[in-house]
Each structure stands twice: as C-alpha cells, then as structure tokens.
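2024-03-11 09:14:02 DEBUG pipeline.ingest accepted 1 chain
2024-03-11 09:14:02 DEBUG pipeline.ingest length=414
2024-03-11 09:14:03 DEBUG pipeline.predict start
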Amino acid sequence: MLTAEQQETLTRVGPGTPMGDLLRRYWLPVAPTSELHPGRSMPVRLLGEDLALFRTTDGSLGLLDARCPHRGTSLAYGVVDDCSIRCAYHGWRFDRHGACIELPSLRDGQAVRERARTRAHRAEELGGLVWAYLGPEPAPLLPRYDVFVWDNALRDIGRALLPCNWLQIMENSVDPIHLEWLHGHHLASVRRAHGLPTPSRYGRRHEEIGFDVFPHGIVKRRVLTGGNREDDDWRIGHPLVFPLMVRVGAGRQHRVQIRVPVDDTHTLHYWYSCYLAREGAVAPVQAEIPVYEVPFQDARGEFLLDFVDGGDIMSWLSQGPIADRTREMLVDTDRGIGLLRRLFFEQIERVRAGLDPLGIVRSPGDNELIELPQERDKYGKGDAFLAESVAMSHARYSPILPQIFDLLGFAASP
C-alpha cells in the first residue's frame, strides 16, 4: 500500500514532477515512421506536453513546442518546407531548432524573431518509430535494443490509446501470477463461451517466481508446474526494460510492449513485434513497418476479452484512470510490484542528485546491439506454443498475419 503522497509521486508525469523529471531522461516513441512522410506534420502529446512533430521535405525531423509564441495556435497543423514549419494562422516560420526565422507580416522583425524562439526537442528514428527526448543535455544515446535492429525479420506495430495511467500498465509487467488466471482460466472461459479454441498452456500454476535487477531493468523468472530451474523461463527469464517497456515472446517471435505516458490519465500503448525468419527462409523486404490499431471495446463499449491483450487492457482500465494504491492489499506474490516501485523511487533520487538513472546508454561502443535476456523455448513447448500465442494475442489484428505464419513456418493459425 502506498501513501497518497507516494501515489502522487509515482503517477504524475507533467513538467516539474519527480516522475516527469525521471522519464524525461529517456527516449520515448511518439509516432510510427510510416505516418510521418516528408513535408508532413502531426500533433503529439507526451508527458503532459503538446508538441508538433514534423519532417521537412529534405527528410529531417523536427519536434517543437506545439504552441506558437504569437497567438497560441498549434504549429502541428503548419506548413512544412525544406528546413522549417510555418504556423497556419499567420505564417510565422520556425526552424527545427526552435528559432523564428521569418515573420511575413513585419518588415523589420529581428527583435520580435529573437523573442519568439520556441522550445525544440531531439527526435530520432529507430526500428520504424520516431523517438523523442525531452530531457536536459547532453542527451543519452537512443538504445539500439535487439528487436529494433535485427536483420532478416518481419515487423509490425500494434497501437492503442488507453484512458488510464501508465503505471498500472507497467506494474502488470512484474505480476507473473496473472498469466495463469487472466490468460489461462479467464481467457479459456471467455473463448469457450464463444465456441472458440481455448489456450492450452497459459493456465499452468506458478511454483516459483523471481526478480533480479540488471543494467537495463528487471529480469523476471518463473517455474511452472512440471518445470524446474533448468527451464529457460527461470534460467534466462525475460526483462522489464526500465522504465516503460516489457519484452515477451520466445524463439523466433519477439515483442516489446512500450507504454508511453501521454499525460497522467492516458497511455499510448505500442505492441512492437519482430518475427525472425525460420532457418533457410528470407524475410520479405519491408519498405515500411505496418501500423495497425488494436481494438479493446466493441460498438457497445464492452471490453473485447477473447484475446490475451484484451484481458490485460480490461484489467488496467477497470482500475480507474489512476489506480488507487492507498486501498490495495499486496501479498507475497506481488513482490515484483514492490521491487518496481522501489526502483522508481531510487531512480528519482538519482536524477535529483544529478546522476544518470538506470539503463541510460552513453557509450557508442555499448550501443551497436544491446541484446536483452529472453527465454528461447517458452515453457518447453516450442513452436506449438508460439503459434498459439500469436493467434491469441494482439497479432490477430495484424495486416501481415499470413506472412508472419509463413515466415515462422506455421501451417495456419490455430
């Protein structure tokens, strides 16, 4: 249980808040690359700030405070040229670094242009996503985690804007027991009621769970009924990548779930999937990584519960816009949640002390390829489990699902 003060510290992400200051030390994805073509601009909201993201006609990225210094109209709807963006209202022109370089309505506007400088932020591309850095300089390197840079793979990106605080989603990532109940027994019940195939392996009982802090976050381990500590799921485990990602999957399918705090009560959730070609196969060349929306409610507003991620989303959203942790009752199997919260408090203090928090990368030599720990043969069941997990996850909505099954060597979706 947290105090009301601790709850505020952990959940609020706006400028000047302790958690906001911590999260601004990391690169966060703000848009798919495929949606930002040259000459385009778009509004993005990140950590409670409204921003204008654009790509100049020569291909360079710009990320500015959305509010035009003139009258406050959003620059996100402006006109983009080879080096700048113009406000749609009066044509005030700003370069990628925030400098006002033209005032069409003033003959001599030098003094005004100097005062009109707006805030600019760093933006870079990696793995089909545009990433933003809103923190102080010098900026760390954008981490080149394996799933974003591996060759001979197919990728797709699922997305949903969820009306809840980011922390209750991240806490799910260190709550392994929910696998056997939510994704095992509950999912089986829902799918059975709809006459659908039921999951065959998610419901195995957890005999042991463990958590270890490593340089990029927390490694999660488990032993399920019939298994032991020699199994990959304990010996290797899989990571929560601090502060906002969790890595799941196994074998040739690898997924990173990224929970991006839009503001205190909204989270942009990405399901980033990387499917490695089976031996002897060559993945099709992707000109762009496809992006698709992951639905979580039907036309009546009822939760869609017949797939794994739908159950997760119901569990997060039904806690309310910001889960009330002053009323919770944690038990021993929730010790991963306690560890994550302590880690957040510790990293907040590191930032206050002027130090880098956990997982920051500054050496180019350490950033060529960052391989994350990941079990290979999940629960010892091999490809049959992987085929089932693809079919019963967010991937069911992917526009390239047939190509994914072909690349992995699965005959058809279960």
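2024-03-11 09:14:41 DEBUG pipeline.report Residues 178 and 274 are 24 Å apart (CA to CA).
2024-03-11 09:14:41 DEBUG pipeline.predict end
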